[in-house]
Write a structure and sequence with these properties.
Rossmann fold; seven-stranded mixed sheet; alpha/beta; four-stranded parallel sheet
Length: about 450
């Protein structure tokens, strides 16, 4: 019998991150300064990031060595297992083979520490005393709190208010690792106070939380900003996922036909998918499928244009798929996917037709999550469940068409701290939200985006 769990020996863990910038179909358009609208240079980013991360953001090198100090901490959970979902295959009656790369085995329970540890390391090396960041569902905030704890840095987390209230135990995780957690919008920053004056009941958004964290970093000399997705260096750090996966599939003589992940900002999906970019460019028929919520349909209904990465226009402008920087998504439980924009790398690949985006409503997503939990035993996070839903749909299509494909899922994290979401689904109180074209058009117009730029 072929193995169910495929373990890559620790000695074979990737020693370098893969930088996709040299292999993109065309170069990315540069990020722009939020005031001058001129292309950013390294010095423009110094108030927010240490120079090592700025250089990674713009590096032309295909491979960037992983520091030994980061590898030492990675080894706490890396390489993560690749698991053949045999029980799910049997339940679906599909000829497809389904594998999932279980990033939920990390201490914080998601893929986020792959970049949190790296960012904490480079900031510690630069003498930074405190990091400020945002978090949606809390996976990034808990991962950065974990990374900062290990490197002796303070961590301040602005958590989207609706998730702060929905997910108290993720908040507790951050506090266990020394993180200071603020509901966003908060009264801690000028940005938050202004938003609360206009709307005291504002549920928050990742864009608002980013604005608060950027403001915090920019107004304190000992503090830098850390972002959990979207930026090139964040995507870079996540490529350990796909690099390990390719080696594990080689161990069992297999290769991926369909690669699937969920998308909020894009780092988890890109971490799995980017190592397949060169194969796809060489003509190999591997599909890259990115799943998002219909309540925040950035790739499927957004505009490919320059927009701010935050809600109030403090962060750089990036050319990306966006719903408009002031867009506030509905209160869905997949808090990590409630972001108005996407990674510039991912956005360009979607625009070029290299990546296929799909969108799902949350009741169908939770139905898929229960199917997965009932067969494979692991309860997926609401965000991860979007990828599970896409994988099940692809496996059913294989059954209906009588074709055998190998499906690989970026399983970004477990849902052990998201049980309120499951309770809402099981009680029948979970609401499906689908953004109308009119709502999205208004959000884009409010952001000053009238067409693809």
């Amino acid at each position: 019998m072929d193995p169910v769990k495929i373990f890559l020996p620790e000695k074979d863990m990737p020693r370098a991150w893969y930088n996709a910038l040299p292999d993109l179909p065309k170069p990315l358009d540069p990020p722009l300064h939020p005031q001058t609208r001129e292309p950013l240079g390294p010095d423009d980013l110094l108030p927010l990031f240490p120079m090592d991360l700025i250089l990674q953001e713009m590096s032309p090198d295909r491979w960037i060595d992983i520091p030994e100090e980061v590898l030492d901490i990675y080894s706490l959970w890396r390489p993560s297992p690749l698991i053949r979902a045999r029980q799910l295959e049997k339940h679906l009656g599909t000829p497809a083979k389904i594998y999932f790369k279980n990033e939920g085995v990390s201490p914080p329970g998601s893929h986020k520490p792959n970049t949190a540890v790296a960012q904490a390391y480079y900031n510690k090396k630069a003498g930074v005393k405190r990091l400020a960041t945002e978090t949606g569902a809390g996976q990034w905030g808990s991962a950065l709190s974990f990374g900062c704890k290990l490197f002796g840095i303070e961590c301040t987390v602005y958590m989207v208010k609706v998730s702060y209230e929905q997910k108290p135990y993720r908040r507790s995780m951050m506090q266990v690792w020394g993180g200071s957690v603020q509901p966003s919008p908060s009264d801690r920053t000028e940005v938050g106070r202004k938003i609360l004056e206009k709307d005291p009941d504002c549920p928050g958004s990742l864009g608002i939380a980013i604005s608060e964290a950027v403001f915090d970093a920019a107004t304190h000399e000992d503090t830098k900003y850390a972002l959990g997705s979207v930026l090139n260096h964040v995507v870079l750090h996540q490529t350990v996922i796909g690099l390990e996966t390719k080696k594990q599939l080689e161990m069992v003589g297999d290769e991926a036909d369909i690669v699937i992940g969920c998308v909020g900002g894009g780092s988890n999906f890109m971490g799995m998918a980017l190592p397949y970019l060169r194969e796809k460019a060489d003509g190999r028929d591997v599909r890259l499928v990115a799943a998002e919520p219909k309540a925040c349909p950035t790739m499927t209904k957004g505009m490919f244009a320059y927009d701010f990465g935050d809600s109030v226009g403090m962060a750089p402008l990036m050319r990306m798929y966006t719903l408009g920087h002031s867009f506030v998504p509905p209160k869905i439980h997949a808090g990590g996917l409630r972001y108005h924009g996407d990674s510039p790398i991912l956005s360009q690949l979607v625009h070029e037709g290299v990546v296929e985006p799909v969108a799902f409503a949350q009741n169908g997503v939770f139905e898929a999550a229960l199917t997965f939990a009932g067969t494979e035993g692991i309860i997926p996070a609401p965000e991860t469940s979007h990828a599970v839903k896409a994988a099940i749909d692809e496996a059913v299509r294989c059954r209906e068409e009588g074709v055998e494909k190998t499906i690989v899922v970026a399983f970004s994290g477990h849902g052990h701290f998201d049980m309120a979401a499951y309770e809402a689904y099981l009680s029948g109180s979970l609401v499906d939200y689908e953004m109308s074209d009119e709502t999205i058009a208004k959000a884009l117009a409010d952001a000053g985006i009238s067409g693809e730029e």
